[in-house]
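Researcher: Hi, I'm a grad student and pretty new to this. My advisor asked me to get structures for two proteins we've been looking at. I'm not sure of the right format, so I'll just paste the first sequence and hope you can take it from there.
Model: That works fine. Here's the first sequence with its structure tokens right after it:
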Amino acid sequence: MRVTRSVIPNLFTLANLFCGFAAIVAAFEDNLSQATLLVIMAGIFDMLDGVVARITHSTSEFGVELDSLCDAVSFGVAPSVILYVAFFEQWHQWGLLLASLPALAGVLRLARFNVQLTSMEDKLYFRGMPIPAGAFTIVSYVYLWHSANVLPASWKPGMIVFVTLMTAAAMVSTVKYDNLPRPSLRGIRQRPIVFSVFSVGLVATIVTGGKALFPFMVVYLIGGAIRHLAVFLRDRSDSDDSVEEADPDPFTM
């Protein structure tokens, strides 16, 4: 077997899958803290495989497909298992159905991404909430808010259902969400506001021991939806005034 440069990023991708599998095992062992940490570690490996692929000039369709398969486990199945073990198990069949929604939506999201992929270049925006972001939203809520008794007990059933439904809906939506900006001078100059927001979220998450991660993900989820609605209303208003000249794409400005 010939060893090529693509082996290096693929090893990071497989490390992502291993973390996802280990997270599922930890969840079934009722170790939610370890399961949450493993999902976050999977996200780190998921980011690194793309970085390494660009550095080694080894991006390929095989890498994209492998990445999607691993993401389906780490950011689709694993968060759904965590939801089921943490709360939905007591609702039996209905709980099983609700807990499965992030996995089902995540797989649909990945399939749509793959068939719409036109180049190996980084995208500024994703159509639908990226599946790693959906996973971070779910696991950060379950472990750091739901299981940590931050909320009143009477709020918990409604909140976990709401978070589950909103995250699944965001992933299969057509709302445009920002891609994680590259930590480079070009990336900072290209999108200084986005880079600043992500940097503040990262620092706040570290300083608060992870508790700020869920609020930041909520801002990310809702912020993308609000911007999408504002652009839709603006384009609709402009099209009523004049139909002769098309407006520029606001997401490339």
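Researcher: Oh nice, that was easy. Here's the second one.
Model: And its structure:
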Amino acid sequence: MAATKQPQLFNIILSDPSGGVRGRPSRKIAVAAKASLYDLAEAAIEAFDFDLDHAFGFYDNIINWTRAEEGYELFADIGQESRFPGVQKVKISSVFLAPKQRMLLLFDYGVCWHFIVQYLGDAEVEPAQKLPHVIESNEKTYEQYDSFGVEDDWDED
């Protein structure tokens, strides 16, 4: 099967830890067909106005990532022990094989932001459109560092 050159479309939903998505923020993003899982994660995280400043991984078990049978982790790319391959050299086309396929993108293993990444197929974008590109944004997102009611005390006098 020949690799497609058409940009790929993904629906990214910021889910709750149990995989719940009702009323949760989502983004539809187009990424280059040749993009890596790292590129996809970067596009997804930045689409929610988060900084890509923590480790992450993709897992086939949406609800319990520790029981995933298939996964890809940044840890493997940075020389840390990992039971899964890395994300930097793995192309999205070798992981997301059919529309509607989903994986969990777990970002920041301390806070554990859960993003459900669903492959939608080929994206329809203008030929000159720079990729990655947010095609649709639904619902306001959360603040990356104060979503748990933690007050910032750095500005104390």
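Researcher: Is there anything I should tell my advisor about the second?
Model: You could mention this: The radius of gyration is 16 Å.
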